[in-house]
Specification:
The complex is a heterodimer of chains A (159) and B (208).
Chain A: H1 2-18, E1 21-22, E2 25-28, E3 31-39, E4 48-56, E5 62-68, E6 72-83, E7 86-91, E8 95-97, E9 101-105, E10 110-117, E11 126-133, E12 137-146, E13 155-156
Parallel strand pairs in A: 1-13, 3-12
Antiparallel strand pairs in A: 2-3, 3-4, 4-9, 4-10, 5-8, 5-11, 6-7, 6-10, 11-12
Chain B: H1 9-27, E1 55-57, E2 62-63, E3 72-78, H2 85-100, E4 107-113, H3 121-128, E5 135-139, H4 142-151, E6 156-160, E7 166-171, E8 174-177, E9 183-187, H5 193-204
Parallel strand pairs in B: 3-4, 4-5
Antiparallel strand pairs in B: 1-2, 1-5, 3-8, 6-7, 8-9
Helix pairs in contact in B: 2-5
The chains are: A mainly beta (159), B alpha+beta (208).
Chain lengths: 159, 208
Amino acid sequence: MLKSTAAALVLATILPATAFAECVEVTQGNITVSAAWSRATIGTERPAVFYVTIRNDGGSDERLVGIETPVADMPMLHESVMENGAARMSHVDQIVIAPIDAVSLEPGGYHGMLMDLQTELVEGTTFPVTLLFEKSGPVTIDTAVLPLRAREAACEEAL
Amino acid sequence: MRRGALIRGGAGMVAAVGFMLAVGAWRSGDLPWQQQVTETVGTRGADLESMSWQLTSHEGERVSPQSWIGQTSLVFFGFTWCPDVCPMTLLNISDWLEELGPDADGLAVHLVSVDPERDTPEVLADYLSNFDPRISGLTGSPDEVAQAADDFNATYRRVPRDDGDYTVDHTAGVMVFDPDGRLSSIIDLHDDPKFAVPKIRRAMEREV
């Protein structure tokens, strides 16, 4: 018993380094959100980011119209846009997810911008983010705080 | 994370389908860094010798463009309050340095802050400690930063936000200068990573 527990513990510590776990996903109606992640912050002065993948299995467009989270008073949907070699961030009112399609909020494109951060985001912790969909309503997902150096979700997307 | 899910038979199938979809995107050239990028090498910002800016490094040292002559230099504009594009650029550069290995020791990499109000040398040092230690930060008075941007033919613009805070739009490419101080190439944010390192090597080859 003790032996198998010890073996499981060893396995548990080795696994993250050798293989990604499957992403946490939340399904509500036709919408599935998964692979929610953010980067650790230095203090609370800088805005944090929010990245996630949204899949629409329905037969019509769905729209992400906003996000909410207890860790930030002013969360917004943004898009990084390149124009004539310059990077600009623009606020987006909604992100459309076409039928039988998926949209990723990912570095260099759409992202959630978590402004007026209420707490430092510490690597290894999670925090909830509620995505507000026009048809499917609010969907809440646990968001993994990854190192400041992370460039993608630390899990396997089953999309 | 749910490790048990890995063992589930279905997961492998789903992953395989995901892989095929990814290959499909790759082949169709839809991925952002597969898009064609044109090099924009103008006359302004093309020669370190002709520049006159002076900035302060994250270690508190005064730096001038002439001090970079003799080594290959990578320069990009950004700010530490930038949550999306700037960490991405820093991560890309860290990857290039890793790929270059010991060859990268002859490189100088500089982030010029377009947000001198918040990015003091101390703030830059704190932030950059999270990335490759070969990346240095430069900042200065608003006038000094404006002069540097002008010399490099870079643009930036402070954009106020509703809550009284602000963000900064800025030139996003990484400029590569050869050891003679001449602009060798610009690596675009969405450039295919496999072209980035050869561009740096090309500039380094001019070292005698």
